[in-house]
Q: What sequence folds into this?
């Protein structure tokens, strides 16, 4: 696993030990950022089910000014910190060990909007509809922002969710990427 492009291009990233997380493959990560970027001119990102932090770090490498990383797994949090230190992005990141729904509520109280929200939940624990509701309730997506969901191939996400409209859906092996923007 590595950073695909940008200023940290080529740096290797650690994976979370054990089998509790499913890292996004480099192929899927590259496809994701080619769809939504591929580069950014600043902005804030939220990596909600961060795992190793690879998606948020990729966003930082490609130009996001800051990223909030959230995961509830203790080993994932340690891995995110190690990867941020290795890539030199510690000062551009906030890392929280928390449940995704509680984290969205906490972030929502800060009156912040994100240009990029990355959702890569464990395939067996999909709560996308609830998450979309909280993103809408707390106005977490900036007007020109993008939300990207990585799911299993068989998961069907809605065409609309509050103000979010499905822009694009692409499949890569057993992984599906779905991109939402504000309508």
A:
């Amino acid at each position: 696993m590595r950073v695909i492009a940008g200023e940290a291009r080529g740096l290797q990233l650690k994976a979370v030990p054990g089998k509790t997380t499913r890292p996004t493959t480099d192929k899927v990560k590259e496809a994701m950022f080619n769809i939504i970027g591929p580069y950014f001119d600043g902005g804030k990102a939220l990596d909600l089910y961060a795992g190793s932090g690879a998606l948020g770090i990729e966003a930082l490498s490609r130009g996001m000014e800051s990223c909030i990383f959230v995961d509830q797994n203790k080993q994932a949090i340690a891995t995110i910190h190690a990867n941020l230190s290795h890539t030199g992005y510690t000062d551009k990141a906030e890392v929280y060990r928390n449940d995704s729904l509680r984290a969205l509520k906490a972030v929502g109280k800060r009156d912040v909007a994100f240009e990029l929200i990355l959702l890569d939940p464990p395939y067996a624990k999909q709560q996308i509809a609830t998450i979309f509701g909280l993103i809408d309730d707390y106005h977490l997506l900036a007007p020109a922002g993008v939300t990207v969901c990585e799911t299993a191939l068989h998961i069907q996400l809605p065409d609309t969710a509050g103000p979010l409209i499905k822009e694009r859906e692409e499949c890569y092996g057993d992984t599906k990427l779905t991109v939402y923007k504000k309508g």
In short: The chain has a mean pLDDT of 92.
